[in-house]
Amino acid sequence: xxxxxxxxxxxxxxxxxxTRDLTAQVVERLGAKEVIRRDLATPLPLLDxxxxxxxxxxxxxRSDAQKATLALxxxxxxxxxxxxxxxxxxxxxxxxxxxxxxxxxxxxxxxGLTFQYTENGPEGLLTGKRAILVVASGGxxxxxxxxxxxxxxxxxxxxxxxTNVDIVAADQQALDPDGSAKKAQDExxxxxx
Length: 193
Known about the structure:
- It is a single chain.
- This protein is α/β, with parallel strands linked by helices.
- The protein has one domain: Flavodoxin domain (Rossmann fold, 3-Layer(aba) Sandwich).
- It contains six helices and seven strands; from the N terminus they run βαβααβαβββαβα.
- α2 packs across α3.
């Protein structure tokens, strides 16, 4: 059983969302003691020059304004660091992740906090965690060459040290909605709690 789950939804749809329904089922199946909820329907700010400047200023040299600029990012990183398992709902929009989820990734992929550069290349600092990606699509087959979403998410999670990644796919719903739903339900039932 996961102790703490970070539950992230990124669908623009607040009702009738396949990924929202499925992430809720996954979180329930995990039976976590604590669930941290992050709903990206309210978009996060995009990175800008002030954010980049603050991020690249050494922490002990940041001005109060720079600290304020990074406060939300620091909070998002803390949520990620405190979670044992991360459940991410990611509908496939135009072959990739929603922009709101990309904005979250930009806020949490921070050198010195979630990864570091070494003489052997980048090294993720969030090891020992598990991620469960819940993807949904109308026509894209999960894992296919056209599925940039789950490949990108798996890569980014690995970049920050999370390499234990399961995927629950409700894919190709426009082609076979019943088969897609059954497959996703079977995958959830097969998840270790």
